[in-house]
Amino acid sequence: MYKILIVEDDGIIANSVMKFLQNWGYEVELVEDFNGIIDQFVRFSPQLILMDIALPLFNGYHWCTEIRKLSKVPIIFISSTSDNMNIVMAMNMGGDDFIAKPFDLNVLVAKVQAILRRAYSFQGEANLLEHRGAILNLSDTCLMVQDKKVELTKNDFRILQILMENKGKVVSRDQMMTHLWDDNCFVDDNTLTVNIARLRKKLDEEGLEGFITTKKGIGYLVED
């Protein structure tokens, strides 16, 4: 089931679109806190966003730019301001399509279906993991901290992935060794310690001190 996030401040439009999409089998959420759009995006991890342009606080172009720092999730702009300038602006800011208000709900669904087919026919769903403001994108191995992209090595990414996927649980050293290296390949146990230390230093430099906790003699965890 694909998940769709609707960013629309007109309650009547938002609810009618949500109900129509739910009837087509989609899981839909409405944004209600227009200051917490990114937080909801990370938590809900939708496969598509319907974005109005005129919104409280910041417009849809702003939020599209912020989302594009984290994800390539398809974004369809919906707006009553359908002049050529706004359509071009929407595409240039990272939008995938534009629908002018008022619109036919059947046309909206057709566009949603077409974009989802194009975006996900040959790839898995985009996934984001978040902790203490750090956002790990599993689809492009990218870590974002306070709007800054942090360069990760392959092992940095794998360590963060297994720890953030098991947030609040201790991951044993053996589990991490298996996750990082092939079982048939001999790796000195100290190599894991070195990799963890290098990653910790990188996280500390981004203000994420204590992000990874050591459980002596057991393993590591990211505390919930």
From TrEMBL:
Residues 3-116 form the Response regulatory domain. It comes from the Bacteria. The keyword Metal-binding does not apply. InterPro entries: CheY-like_superfamily (IPR011006), OmpR/PhoB-type_DNA-bd (IPR001867), Sig_transdc_resp-reg_receiver (IPR001789), WalR-like (IPR039420), WH-like_DNA-bd_sf (IPR036388). This is Stage 0 sporulation protein A homolog. Residues 126-224 form the OmpR/PhoB-type domain. Keywords: DNA-binding, Phosphoprotein, Transcription, Transcription regulation. SUPFAM superfamilies: CheY-like (SSF52172). Pfam families: Response_reg, Trans_reg_C. May play the central regulatory role in sporulation. It may be an element of the effector pathway responsible for the activation of sporulation genes in response to nutritional stress. Spo0A may act in concert with spo0H (a sigma factor) to control the expression of some genes that are critical to the sporulation process. Residues 126-224 bind DNA.
